[in-house]
Amino acid sequence: MFSRTILTLVCLTVGGSLSGPAARAADIAKGAEIYQSACKGCHEVSIGPPLAGVVGRPVASEPGFGSYSDALKERRSLVWTKDELDHFLAAPREWIPGTLMMQTVPDAEERAALIAYLETLGSGSDVEEGTAALSIDQPVIVAVRRLNESQYRNSIRDIFGADIEIKARFEPERREEGLQAVGNSDLSMTSAGFEQYFGLARSIAAQVLDPARDNALAACSQAGSMDEQRECTEAFVGHYGERLFRRPLTSEERAVRVHTALESAARDGDVRQGLQLALTSLLAAPEFLFRIEMAEPDPGNPGALRLDGYSRAARLSFLFWNSAPDEELLAAAATGKLYQADGLQAQVARLADSPHYEEGVRAFFSDLLQLDGFDNLVKDPAIYPKFSQVVADSSREQMLKTLVDLLLVQQRDYRDIFTSNETYINRALAAVYRVPYPADTAWAPYTFTPDSERAGLLSQVGFLSLFAHPGTSSPTRRGIKLHEIFMCEPTPDPPADVDFSKVKDSKAGTVRGRLLDHMENTGCVACHRRSDPPGLALEHFDGLGQLRKYENGQLIDVSATLNGVAFVGAGGLGQLLRTDERIPACLVRNVYAYSAGQLPAPEQAEFIRRSTREFAGDGYRLPGLMQRMAVAPAFFNVLVPEGLAATGANARDAGATGR
Amino acid sequence: MQRKQAVLQGLLLAGLLLPALAHAGWTRSWVIEWNEPAMYYGADSGVIDPGSDCPAGTNPEIDWVEVLVRAGYSRAEAEWLRDPANPTRSPRNGQNQMAFRGEGRANVYTHPETYPDPGLTGVSGDIGEGFDLDGDPGNGFVSPEGERGIDNAFYRTLGCWKTYRGPHRLSGGALTFNDAMRNGGWTMVIVASGEGDDERNDDNVRVGIYLSEDKLVKGGNGEIVADYTFRIQPHQVFEGIFAARTEGGVIHSTEPSPRVVLRDPSFTRELELLQARLRLTMQADGSLQGLIGGYRPWMPVYQGWVDARGPVIESLTWVELPGVYYALQRGADYSPPGSDGERTHISYALRVDAVPAFVMEPDASREVAQVRSYRDVAEEDNYKAPFAGYVVNGIVPDRSGKYYAGPDAVILPPQSGE
């Protein structure tokens, strides 16, 4: 948030009146915005053809796209000239009746901007033409990401101990590009949220400095002379400041808190009270509540930036442990070992060898699979009486236990998550699956039997109930989420004028029939023919994920066809997904996006492709993937923020100077 | 009869010795989600309204001042004892002094015979639920289905007490005790196993009713969820084994089970049934509904109410407990062998609603495949006392000694100026 605000200010500063190349750049930029909001949703996920090189291309001629409407196929003699595109974008279905294209761009200026942008796609044109020259000679902030709840809790636990109670309501998260980790890069904090964090800071500080706790650093109260007390306070603030800020404090940051502590102690005669104030200040500081990633000039690559050592440490630690760096990792950052291949390799190996690694993997998949949805999952109790919050929580835990066991403990092929019938259940889930629970422990390993029709994560109650409606299943929702989560292919929102009444009439026939009726609307076909088949294959599971064969008295058909491949049921879907190349590539993208808080930039495409190839070469094993990516130099590459001159003011604004 | 019992015991022994060898042809299992005394309800609605069972409605509310005056207290003392401002009526002390209204101010809960029978309105209707326990169709109620000779003296005796009266699953007592069970107080499971191919029609069926330490679980609609798993808790007391057959999906006991003990939905806790029978119907939705009956000892029933804190029970449920005592004594209709002819037991039936469940062997290793007794593997010390509350002789004494209740208690506070 800080960086975007600063970026905006800098852009405004270097803007001014535009003409010539600058005016064209502005057009292209505007067109890029329109593309992002109106085109990308379909044309980057195979619903519509790719638009790179579309200007000047014959109609319906993209060789890799097989879903052109008959109307476009019949016009293959035409070429997408700028004029033709202008007519088409103004009113697609009037210009070419029968096209599946539903997006219109009525404003002529906007069409011109969009076409100008489309011209740049695939042509090698630089959209950044006309931006200000860069001067990179000082550290710059390249990302500011709010800690999420689990990261906050884990950090406090690891820094102060598991006995610290954290009672607070945290600010809501936001998911972007399928990940909260990306959304957190765009989050600020409300005043109410800050009050919560501040109250929490006071509570934690009070607990840490509770005389009943054996806290050696809090022994400052025993210090005799003023010098001893200052020394002890500086050590206290320095130690906890470094752990909380994930880097050493600047001299100013340390001095102000030491001064506060000593002044309070002198005034009230209570050293602990002073330390408590200092610790509260650290816990409520943006430098703790936000992960501020800093980049510095790369000495080996003039003009380029690299993530600094402490930011590297934090990125690694939150990826592998979902917590703040420990002292050893901070020490490695301080001594420059994280810039060196062997030093980095040693730390990554240590992180991956730790019991905390499981927490990192769980956090990653919790975000990727959108498991936060279980916190407010609602089911109609009249339809699904077995549902309860216990079932919701158990479903989430089942998915995570399954993933950890398959991918971390057994180190199986990642694609096995779509086909494996090995899982864990507890007593509540056994009731939903209608199987006995043969154990006297809270959880037990379980293997789905063939007659259960269950295979893989998608046939677990968690996925099936999370991506369904409160009172019915939803093939569309399940299909959309499958594409979004596992193939990195989001689906655009439906047109505003769609009549959903036929789909919603859950008393009539099977959902397959209702969806077919729904797809009489040509505006819906393009997305539904991609999203629905996987969901229809899962229709033997109701809105809670319970096995069923009939809906409204009619036998449910779970056969489906996707991209010309026919399959049947959850088992068939799992086998199909296991061979889909988009799935491992999507995981690689998401591991990067999760750790970096942003999608890979075009400059990192080769890194992602190489990582995907190595992932395949290693048998699609997750630990290997994460460790290889984390030691690759490209993992810490920093793109020069567009239009941003790296200035000292930038760094000072975030209180990060002097490092 | 003795021969049949010997055969049954032989079967039980065989079951114990060869549990792994003698696999049942089929096994079904349920968990009891509701149970209540089978009290046929003859009114249209409401608990206290008149009906064919109780033409005058339930026992009327009692004027306790008059009761105390009849017991020898002065009117001023009686009114003081019933005055809500009286500190001895605090929640801690209840109306303890109400216990002392027997002859010589004896405690009527522990010595009901010191108190004249105040009477208790019983059921006067002809329809009742249960079993023909004595084999005499000319003696007893007619069942709602028309079967004659239904023995349910418990119902005839207490069926107009508002604790027990009400439509199915709506009487105050049933709601109270089933709430306790459904909230995790106790769990009983039912297993039926047969050796034939058709579970709905099998002449050789056994039914076991067992305790489980696994709690019932409520779903989003507040009802007990089906398909949960329960481990049998071997118990030296609580268990029931029945020889039975199925006919059209109805499980009938084929001969009386000499003695079974279930967990009673009442303050009594143990529902011991002699000459026990059952008739349970497997419903299309997988649930099980029906009756389990037999002769139960009546004194523990009375004692259960006393131990639940006599004055509170009397005030809230509109009965005098000595009246319950005398009524049960009058209604008792069975003398077990060796009881010298004294009618220590009363005919009784329990309504049971159960939902499908998975019932496991005690070690949770596998589902129960065949009904058998687990008493021989029960730990010796797992029997729990009937009532764990601090109730002494039907009242909760004030441990501080500030408020004394007893035969020689001074009732009225000192007058000012004295």
Automatic annotation (TrEMBL), chain A:
Pfam families: Cytochrom_C, PSCyt3, PSD2, PSD3, PSD4, PSD5. Residues 1-25 form the signal peptide. Residues 26-122 form the Cytochrome c domain. Coiled coil: none annotated. PANTHER family: CYTOCHROME C. GO terms for molecular function: electron transfer activity; heme binding; metal ion binding. InterPro entries: Cyt_c-like_dom, Cyt_c-like_dom_sf, Cyt_c_1A/1B, DUF1585, DUF1587, DUF1588, DUF1592, DUF1595. It comes from Parahaliea aestuarii. This is DUF1592 domain-containing protein. The keyword Transport applies. SUPFAM superfamilies: Cytochrome c (SSF46626). Keywords: Electron transport, Heme, Iron, Metal-binding, Signal, Transport.
TrEMBL record, chain B:
Residues 1-24 form the signal peptide. It comes from the Bacteria. Keywords: Signal. This is Uncharacterized protein. It comes from Parahaliea aestuarii. The lineage of its organism: Bacteria, Pseudomonadati, Pseudomonadota, Gammaproteobacteria, Cellvibrionales.
